Amino acid sequence: MLRSPLTAFLQPVIPPELLPYLLVVAGVGVSLAEALAPGAHLVVLGVALLAAGLVGLLLGPAAGPVVLGVLVLVFGALALYGYRELDLYGGKGSGKTSDSASLRGRTARVTERVTPTEGEVKLSEGGGFNPYYAARSVSGEIPEGSEVIVVDPGGGNVITVESLDDALDDIDRELARGRRRRENGGGDDGERRGDATESETETETERA
């Protein structure tokens, strides 16, 4: 019996019995992607796909495309709740890797010599499943084992770091400049007050 083109088009390209397996594979792949690039918000999707696929395998023939779609939505909502409220990365509300911008200001230790073109660091805390990040220095080389601070998260994939000693030196220099400005400002005020006193004395002398 010949089928119309519309009927042939509506036939599923992938057999329904293979859909749970595809969801499991996709869930594992997305979860691995989150492990390699923390902060990419992929963990929710990975958990939803993986859980829906596993339940689909248990349901067998009853797990049609519609059922699997509903399962993905349900597990996605649960995973999102756990991701935000329970904060699976540690510490409610800390959001250590929920946003790559939160990496700014974090300290890390150099595991591979960092230069403006290559290197790797390990975050002191946070970092999701994988605390190791590809890193680039602001300038010069930073040897292995040095403490650094993240100055540019760079989207969470390649971060820009600066030696912690250099960063502290910059802060010390800024504080010293502030102290000098305050001292100079105080001196100027004293001179102005002295000039005003002398002028008043001269005026009183002339009147006398």
TrEMBL record:
Membrane-spanning intervals of the chain: 42-60, 66-83
Region entry Disordered, spans: 92-122, 175-208
Keyword Membrane appears in the UniProt entry: yes
Gene3D superfamilies in alphabetical order: Nucleic acid-binding proteins
Comp. bias regions, Acidic residues: 197-208
A molecular-function term among this protein's GO annotations: peptidase activity
PANTHER family associated with the record: INNER MEMBRANE PROTEIN YBBJ
Name of this chain's protein: Membrane protease regulatory membrane protein
Organism, as annotated: Halogeometricum pallidum JCM 14848
